[in-house]
């Protein structure tokens, strides 16, 4: 069967049909996958049974891989893979259990944020075998930018915003039932605040997108804090309209990849500690924001 793409919604995402990521992919097909990814920002591959090494190898096609700052959640033998899970061993989580339960783009709090992330579903919470929990929502922030009115585009054109990992980490750490420990001096040094333009240009497609997110953006540079907060909230409300959104219902064996330049995502936390969830994530390095 030859490879096909089926759009998930009008503005975001395609499912890739007819590809087995456990087998070698021709250069031609890989180019088509990459082109589709750049155009649609989210790709879904169903029913994939790949090893950790194959996950890493596929991810490397898109660039070098990040090693996450929370080292305790990396696979010891393959540290390019970050565990996202509420499974516990010896009363300790084996992965990040509360990852991404707010709208964000991965690593926007770094100077050179990630190009894309590639998530593999290993265990999905379910009840009675038919209802699954822990969906992930994605929005296309390039489509959201294009839909802004001319006045708003003009207003945000030259603005910059502050992104912070520690601010978000502290909020999560102080939440009920959190297992997060205070960040060490060494970890803190690796995640200083950074400043990025509010409107970002995609380094490959040239499309502009809204690059502020509820998860990591803390303020607008050189703007009254209340006014900045209001502007950020208006932009978040606009970006998260249903028209720019795709909500993914996971199945074991799904692989989702998303573009961290032109999307945001949100992990829905609608399952308790008795329902297990386990994902493997690779994170591809990106370039400076402009
Ligand atoms: Fe994320």
Report on the architecture of this protein:
- By secondary structure, the protein is of the alpha+beta class.
- It has a single domain, classed as Double-stranded beta-helix, CATH 3.60.130.
- 23% of the residues lie in helices and 26% in strands.
- The strands form 6 sheets. Strands 1-2-3-17-7-19-4 form a 7-stranded mixed beta sheet, with helices on one face. A 3-stranded antiparallel beta sheet has the order 16-10-18.
- Strand 13 and strand 14 (208-210) form a beta hairpin.
- The longest helix has 15 residues, at 225-239.
- The model has no long low-confidence stretch (mean pLDDT 94).
What tags apply to this protein structure?
7 helices, 26% strand, 19 strands, binds fe (ii) ion, single chain, seven-stranded mixed β-sheet, Double-stranded beta-helix, alpha+beta, 290 residues
């Amino acid at each position: 069967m030859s490879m096909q793409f089926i759009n998930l919604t009008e503005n975001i995402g395609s499912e890739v049909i007819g590809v087995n990521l456990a087998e070698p992919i021709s250069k031609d097909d890989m180019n088509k996958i990459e082109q589709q990814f750049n155009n649609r920002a989210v790709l879904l591959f169903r029913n994939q049974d790949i090893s950790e090494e194959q996950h890493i190898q596929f991810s490397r096609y898109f660039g070098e891989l990040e090693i996450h700052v929370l080292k305790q959640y990396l696979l010891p033998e393959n540290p390019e893979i970050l565990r996202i899970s509420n499974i516990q061993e010896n009363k300790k989580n084996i992965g990040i259990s509360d990852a991404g339960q707010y709208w964000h783009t991965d690593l926007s709090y770094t100077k050179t944020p990630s190009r894309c992330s590639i998530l593999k579903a290993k265990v999905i919470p379910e009840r009675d075998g038919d209802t699954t929990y822990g969906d992930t929502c994605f929005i296309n922030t390039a489509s959201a930018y294009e839909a802004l009115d001319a006045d708003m585009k003009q207003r945000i054109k030259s603005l910059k915003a502050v992104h912070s990992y520690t601010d978000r980490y502290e909020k999560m750490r102080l939440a009920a039932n959190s297992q997060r420990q205070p960040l060490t001096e060494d970890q803190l040094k690796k995640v200083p605040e950074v400043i990025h333009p509010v409107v970002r240009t995609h380094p490959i497609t040239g499309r502009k997108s809204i690059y502020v997110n509820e998860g990591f953006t803390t303020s607008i540079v050189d703007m009254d804090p209340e006014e900045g907060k209001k502007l950020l909230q208006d932009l978040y409300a606009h970006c998260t309209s249903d028209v720019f959104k795709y909500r993914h219902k996971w199945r074991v064996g799904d692989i989702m990849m998303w573009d961290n330049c032109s999307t945001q995502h949100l992990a829905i936390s609608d399952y308790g500690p008795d329902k297990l969830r386990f994902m493997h994530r690779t994170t591809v390095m990106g370039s400076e924001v402009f």
